[in-house]
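Lecture notes, unit on protein representations.

Consider one protein chain, 247 amino acids long.
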Amino acid sequence: MIFVMGGPGAGKGTQCGKLLKKYPQLDSFSTGDLLRAKKKEDSEEARALAKTMAEGKLVTSSTVVKLMRDYMGKSRKNIFLADGFPRSQENVDEWNKQLGDKVDVRFLLLFDLDGETMLKRLLYRASKSAVKRDDDKEEVMRKRIALFENSRKIFQQFDDAGNLRRVSATGSISCIFNRVETAFAQERLIKPKPKVIFVMGGPGAGKGTQCNILLNKYPNLDSFSTGDLLRAKAKEDSPMGREIAGL
């Protein structure tokens, strides 16, 4: 499990969507989407939930975690992104109560963005949306941002435990996604496609020397010579090795 947090308009849902599209081994759910689906049900509980959400208030942690547990129980995946959780100490405590000994939380991914930019993004999104949501009013937006700001103290405990990964939510969607991929690759949750640089030059041009200098200075790089690969293969006692040796 990876908890994914960021203020309203930080783009965490967009980034989770991009991760799912590129890495099918992942699954993701937004606590907001789970709640919106739940409030459409024809029940007293659903109507009470709808009223709470329309007022921009937090839903009880037991309800949120139960919806998360139900979703994961129906999924065939085993790596989840929890978009919009946790928002309070009560969320954390309820998670530990219901799922703490059943699900391994790897880290909390935090999309950093200031409140003023959050509000500008939300207002722009609401002005362009054909379908108006209950929380598209500016008054509710400000309440949501304030609630998020109150959640920041929760992130500190993850930071203190070494389980917080911060990603700047400024810049283009692709730039932010590159930062997210880097964080996930460092945790060995995804394996990005290798990046290859072809290196050519005539005999004596010094390409091998320059490649070695790059390797010594930048340990994140690796290098191989096709000539060295062929010579190593020619020494093997195998059909391909003997074929190459005979060339």
